[in-house]
């Protein structure tokens, strides 16, 4: 961040190379402003009742997971083949009996532990993109090198609290082996908390086992150190890979993030209220299943509900319908008393342009106002999630810094109310050089790292660079200055030995 100056001068552009945040960067963000009550009490009751009716009348299928069906049968649900139906109130009761309202996820550096739930907000990078994009090389398949780059940038960004999970797919590594390289990259190049694999139960087990090597088995059994992002196969299906992965994480006392993935009009009703009720029903069932597997296991109630173009079938983002859905889902999650995950800086744009800025901002805002605790896809998302963008990542990070200042709210004390300044500055005079300004100028305003606030002439003389050009320079500078956080050499050796033995035990599989 640049040093502020009393007036615009040519030195401002040169000072942009000096990186100093204007707001202290915490391990996570604690909300100091209220959430928004979008639904009336009657509307909230009707949505929850609709979800209960869906679960009782239609039910949810569990395909390829007999153990999950047995758990539901023992809990008193009606199981017919793969279909499970639930008496009204049953799933809610299971959730509210043992689900933690707040839990801590530890990083290998204790200073980077994050709280999830309550008034805490955790920002995490985008997840799952098979492609990456930057201005010079364009759109291309992601590689392990790209994966490492995004982990490194997330480590260096003070406004990102979490290393994320599959920040991009490293398609140059076999499918059945890449989870080992991804988890190791999170451990090696960052000390922030991270997510593990969910693409097969054995890969989830490997992810957790690597955490046991890193943290110690006893610590992992008693503490959350890794998250697993579990998607339902909407509408109203948990496939065996996902439900087994969910139970694997819960059984190890690690947190599943249960996320219905619904595009209204495709995987759910075209009407927003109906899609919200479906999302609520699916998420509740997943959260409850973790408690049947291991009562008290940490879990996050998730949501990904967006609109789509009914002309083309393409997903749309930053639209009013998903914004309303996030606000409503926030109230439903608070009613249950569970931590909430929402999406973040979402866009259908292919590059970091004005469409990306509008859609990302209008996706992030309702997640924050709705009370989301864990915001996945907070930085880097392009093209409906198909692409992880280098320039988009750092632009989003700058925006997240602004959200830190906003969510912290106003402070009211003698300094912020500034009576000393009023006493010093005569009516009609300016505050630029007064003692109060000089004492507070470094922290008073968020100084955006990538915004250009210079005069036209200064901007022109510096190269007339648009935001994406400035962002390109920024991410390259970040990577050039990255250093890995220290790790115990014995632990590092044990991790690499585990990975090598695992890889040698299986043939390459590319699908």
Please name the defining characteristics of this protein.
8-stranded mixed sheet; TIM Barrel; 2 domains; MTTB_MeTrfase; 19 helices; disordered N terminus; alpha/beta; methyltransferase activity; 4-stranded mixed sheet; transferase; MttB-like_sf; 511 residues; Methyltransferase
Record the SSE blueprint:
Blueprint: H1 11-15, E1 29-30, H2 41-58, E2 60-63, H3 66-75, E3 78-80, E4 83-85, H4 90-98, E5 102-105, E6 114-117, E7 120-123, E8 131-134, E9 138-141, H5 144-156, H6 178-189, E10 194-195, H7 201-215, H8 217-222, E11 226-231, E12 237-239, H9 240-251, E13 255-259, E14 261-263, H10 272-293, E15 299-302, E16 304-308, E17 315-316, H11 320-336, E18 340-343, H12 354-369, E19 374-376, E20 381-382, E21 387-389, H13 390-407, H14 414-417, H15 419-424, H16 435-444, H17 456-461, H18 467-480, H19 489-504
Parallel strand pairs: 2-12, 7-19, 8-21, 10-11, 11-13, 13-15, 14-16, 15-18, 18-19
Antiparallel strand pairs: 1-7, 2-4, 3-4, 5-6, 8-9, 16-17, 20-21
Helix pairs in contact: 2-10, 4-10, 5-6, 6-7, 6-19, 7-9, 9-10, 10-11, 11-12, 12-13, 13-18
Give a structural overview.
Pfam families: MTTB (PF06253). GO terms for molecular function: methyltransferase activity. It is a single chain. The protein is α/β, with parallel strands linked by helices. The protein folds into two domains: 11-30 and 410-480, no CATH class; 96-391, Trimethylamine methyltransferase-like (TIM Barrel, Alpha-Beta Barrel), CATH 3.20.20. The protein contains 19 helices and 21 strands. The chain has helices at 11-15, 41-58, 66-75, 90-98, 144-156, 178-189, 201-215, 217-222, 240-251, 272-293, 320-336, 354-369, 390-407, 414-417, 419-424, 435-444, 456-461, 467-480, 489-504; strands at residues 29-30, 60-63, 78-80, 83-85, 102-105, 114-117, 120-123, 131-134, 138-141, 194-195, 226-231, 237-239, 255-259, 261-263, 299-302, 304-308, 315-316, 340-343, 374-376, 381-382, 387-389. The strands form five sheets. It has an eight-stranded mixed β-sheet with strand order 1-7-19-18-15-13-11-10. Helix 6 runs antiparallel to helix 19 (489-504), helix 7 (201-215) runs parallel beside helix 9 and helix 9 packs across helix 10 (272-293). It is globular and about 80 Å long. The two termini are 44 Å apart. Mean pLDDT is 94; it is low at 1-23.
């Amino acid at each position: 961040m640049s040093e502020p100056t009393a007036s615009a001068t040519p030195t401002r552009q040169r000072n942009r190379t000096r990186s100093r945040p204007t707001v202290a960067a915490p391990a996570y963000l604690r909300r100091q402003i209220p959430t928004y009550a979008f639904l009336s009490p009657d509307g909230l009751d009707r949505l929850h009742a609709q979800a209960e009716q869906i679960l009782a009348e239609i039910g949810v299928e569990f395909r390829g997971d007999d153990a999950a069906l047995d758990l539901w049968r023992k809990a008193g649900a009606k199981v017919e083949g793969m279909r499970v139906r639930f008496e009204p109130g049953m799933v809610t009761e299971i959730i509210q009996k043992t689900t933690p309202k707040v839990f801590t996820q530890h990083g290998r550096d204790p200073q980077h532990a994050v709280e999830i739930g309550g008034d805490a907000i955790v920002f995490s990078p985008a997840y799952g993109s098979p492609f990456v994009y930057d201005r010079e090389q364009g759109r291309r398949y992601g590689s392990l090198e790209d994966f490492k780059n995004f982990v490194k940038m997330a480590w260096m960004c003070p406004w990102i609290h979490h290393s994320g999970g599959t920040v991009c797919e490293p398609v140059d590594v076999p499918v059945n082996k890449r989870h080992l390289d991804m988890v190791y990259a999170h451990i090696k190049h960052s000390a922030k908390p991270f997510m593990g694999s969910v693409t097969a139960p054995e890969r989830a087990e490997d992810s957790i086992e690597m955490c046991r090597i890193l943290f110690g088995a006893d610590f992992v059994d008693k503490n959350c150190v890794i998250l697993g992002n579990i998607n339902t196969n909407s509408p109203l299906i948990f496939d065996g890979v996902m439900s087994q992965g969910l139970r694997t994480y819960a059984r190890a006392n690690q947190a599943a993030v249960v996320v219905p993935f619904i595009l209204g009009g495709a995987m759910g009703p075209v009407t927003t209220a109906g899609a919200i009720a479906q999302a609520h029903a699916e998420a509740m069932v997943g959260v409850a299943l973790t408690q049947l597997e291991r009562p008290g296991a940490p879990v996050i109630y998730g949501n990904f509900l967006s609109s789509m173009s009914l002309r083309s079938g393409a997903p749309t983002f930053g639209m009013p319908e998903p914004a309303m859905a996030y606000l409503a889902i926030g109230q439903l999650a608070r009613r249950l008393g569970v931590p909430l995950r929402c999406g973040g800086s979402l866009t259908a744009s292919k590059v970091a342009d004005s469409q990306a800025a509008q859609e990302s901002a209008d996706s992030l805002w309702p997640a924050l106002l709705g009370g989301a605790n864990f915001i996945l896809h907070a930085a880097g998302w392009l093209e409906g999630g198909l692409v992880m963008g280098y320039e988009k990542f750092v632009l989003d990070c700058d925006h997240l810094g602004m959200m830190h200042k906003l969510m912290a709210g106003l402070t009211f004390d003698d300094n912020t109310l500034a009576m000393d300044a009023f006493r010093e500055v005569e009516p009609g005079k300016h505050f630029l050089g007064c003692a109060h300004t000089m004492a507070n100028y470094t922290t008073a305003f968020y100084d955006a790292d990538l915004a250009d606030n210079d005069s036209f002439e200064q901007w022109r003389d510096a190269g007339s660079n648009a935001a994406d050009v400035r962002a390109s320079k920024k991410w390259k500078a970040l990577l050039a200055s990255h250093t890995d956080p220290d790790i115990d050499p014995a632990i590092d050796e044990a991790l690499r030995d585990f990975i090598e033995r695992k890889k040698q035990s299986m043939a390459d599989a590319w699908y």
